[in-house]
Design a protein that fits this description.
about 625 residues; Ubiquitin-like (UB roll); Nucleotidyltransferase, domain 5; about 25% strand; globular; binds FE2/S2 (inorganic) cluster
Length: about 625
């Protein structure tokens, strides 16, 4: 409990709720502004307000919950929010099925036109009837047809396809379609299905998973979807998840299972929406950081979770999807491009591929901001990458009123420097519930420009724009709980004419000193990563031709504010480009093009990984990076 208050962490949106006294679960969630379904208005009969209690200690299910929930659900911590009393610190998970509004997840990015030449291709085959004079096996006759008609050499057939083959051939008058991957037949279907070949490109992020459903004949993305990574329940950052998996095999299995279930759910939904069957998805490419890669595949992570953080492989892998219980075509494959080094994974490689940084002339920086921020510099024909621990502050974690980008999150902030009154914009334009990453970043930049905080990030004690919270710490109110501006209303004039600092309201959405320090730590880590890369390449920020910002968070931030707080060096805005989910685009390129798959493997071998912890002077860069620029340095 924090300061006598009950703290409820709500996943997957990362919202913190503070309660002064034991409160009904449904009420606490609704009062916090979160949209949870409650069709029966809390009577405990509709079952719509399901939540999962993630704490080890769970109270027994009530009689009402036992009637609505299955024994399996109860064992797994599922409860009804309306039947719970939040009387202790809890971590709860609200499944998307219980949320009335979905989280904002960007899944697409800027695409390049490339030749469509996937590894998995479909061929129409018309076989001749076998007779006593021609006793060739079914498989041999398919092989001969493919060789003769398409000049294609096939050597093997997937076991499941072999089982299904005879009936499919004979039930379809000897007219079939075979899907060939390299030299293996991985799927047999009746009639001509050559136009129905689909694949999925997946960006498996620590927080979010992006899916692109791709037509492998045309190369077009026909649908996309973003979901939260359910592993968030086992830790918001990579290290907590690795620690959880390292504790026992049972834990490792659990953390693998939840993500596999989530992927299967998303595949089913995309198939349903687009009138496809799972069978028509013949291949998946999945990119992600090394921890996500290992946890998905159920690989040992002990060597990855402890210094010197070694991955099991730096090669690409191709496995049958069924090996990890992912449901696509029975013989379908998952292709995983190579992780780079340490935690820098194939998502970073996919960004480099999609943005074409690897072939740029001049000095290009590519930055994918996340809990770990990967930065690449292409300079003098050398590609160098670093990973910097920027922490989850931009995901709203460790920020008092922080949350992820869900409805009600403050995403834009402007502060009138004369009146110090803020204007905020929330996602879906509803009443503010908390602050997401782009809002926090804006707020800090605006506080700095309005002179409410100084270069060291400290609130100016003589500012009448701030209030004091219950602990006496300074805060700035972004969204007062009432209608008016509390700072002005409550500002007391003392006898000597000075203002006393008013108290912040309990329910005001505010930014406090600790929040600013969290942002300083995050932006300091990113700036230090940039400085190390520049220093290592012996160039200065004036030599940078372009900064490419990849990733969902990167596409929502205001580049000017990023420069104003000193996270990026002061370069003209025209040199900054936001490209959206480049990792997803890279995964798609690897899915639809053999050439790009080979290209990605070649690039992976060229990337030089620089370990920041070993780099002399990193700490100095980090400390300097935490400072904000002086007012005259702000462009
Ligand atoms: S609101 Fe209907 S069961 Fe909880």
């Amino acid at each position: 409990m924090e300061n006598g208050k009950i703290k409820i962490i709500v996943e997957p949106i990362g919202k913190r709720i503070f309660l002064n006294e034991p409160t009904g679960g449904l009420k606490a969630i609704i009062d916090a502004g979160l949209g949870i379904k409650s069709v029966c208005a809390g009577k405990g009969t509709c079952g719509k307000c399901r939540i999962v209690i993630l704490n080890k200690e769970k109270k027994p299910a009530s009689k009402q919950e036992q009637e609505i929930l299955s024994p399996d659900e109860i064992d797994n911590g599922v409860r009804l929010a309306c039947q719970q009393i939040f009387d202790r610190d809890l971590i709860i998970y609200i499944p998307s099925s219980s949320l009335s509004e979905e989280q904002k997840l960007q899944v697409t990015g800027e695409e390049k036109i490339i030749e469509v030449d996937p590894v998995c291709k479909k061929y129409f085959v018309k076989l001749k009837e076998a007779n006593l004079g021609d006793l060739e096996s079914d498989f041999n006759r398919i092989k001969s047809f493919l060789k003769k008609k398409y000049n294609l050499k096939v050597n093997s057939i997937d076991y499941r396809s072999l089982i299904e083959m005879p009936s499919i051939i004979r039930n379809n008058s000897l007219e079939i379609t075979v899907t060939v991957r390299n030299d293996e037949i991985i799927l047999i279907e009746g009639k001509d299905r050559t136009k129905n070949n689909f694949g999925l490109a997946i960006d498996l992020g620590t927080t979010k998973i992006a899916f692109l459903l791709v037509d492998l004949v045309t190369g077009k993305t026909i649908d996309s979807k973003g979901v939260m990574n359910p592993q968030v329940s086992y830790g918001e950052d990579i290290m907590s998840r690795l620690n959880f998996a390292m504790q026992s095999q049972d834990n490792a299995n659990k953390i693998q299972k939840v993500v596999v279930i989530k992927i299967n759910e998303a595949v089913s939904e995309l198939c349903r929406k687009n009138n496809l069957t799972h069978k028509e998805i013949t291949e998946m490419t999945i990119v992600g950081n090394t921890a996500m890669h290992h946890l998905l595949l159920g690989l040992a992570v002990n060597q990855l979770g402890l210094s010197p953080f070694v991955s099991l492989t730096n090669d690409s892998l191709q496995i049958k999807a069924r090996e990890i219980r992912i449901k696509i075509a029975p013989g379908g494959y998952i292709f995983l491009p190579p992780p780079i080094a340490g935690f820098v994974g194939s998502d970073h490689l996919a960004v480099i591929l999609a943005t074409e940084i690897y072939k740029k002339k001049g000095n290009y920086l590519g930055i994918d901001i996340g809990t770990n921020t990967e930065i690449v510099l292409k300079s003098k024909k050398v590609i160098t990458s670093v990973s910097t621990a920027s922490g989850p502050a931009f995901e709203g974690a460790h920020i008092k009123y922080g949350m992820r980008a869900a409805p009600g999150a403050v995403e834009r902030v402007l502060i009138d420097s004369k009146t110090c009154i803020p204007s905020v914009q929330t996602i879906n334009d509803i009443k503010p519930v908390g602050i997401c990453g782009s809002g926090i970043l804006d707020a800090v930049a605006e506080l700095l420009k309005a002179g409410i905080i100084n270069r060291s990030g400290k609130f100016k004690a003589d500012s009448d724009c701030v209030c004091r919270d219950s602990k006496g710490e300074f805060s700035y109110i972004l969204a007062p709980s009432g209608d008016g501006n509390r700072r002005r209303e409550n500002s007391n004039i003392l006898e000597d004419g000075k203002h006393s600092t008013p108290r912040c309201g309990e329910k005001d959405i505010s930014i406090n000193q600790k929040d600013i320090v969290e942002i300083q730590l995050a932006k300091g880590a990113i700036r230090a990563g940039i400085e190390v890369l520049l220093e290592h390449a012996d160039i200065s920020f004036k030599d940078i031709d372009k900064i490419i910002i990849a990733g969902a968070f990167g596409s929502y931030i205001d580049p000017k504010n990023v420069i104003d707080i000193g996270m990026f060096p002061s370069i003209p805005l025209r040199k900054i480009r936001q490209v959206g989910n480049a990792a997803g685009v890279g995964a798609k390129m690897i899915l639809i093009s053999k050439k790009q798959r080979i290209n990605a493997e070649r690039i992976a071998k060229k990337i030089r990984y620089l370990e920041l912890a070993e780099y002399p002077g990193f700490n100095n860069h980090f400390i300097n990076g935490m400072q904000f620029p002086a007012p005259d340095e702000i462009i």
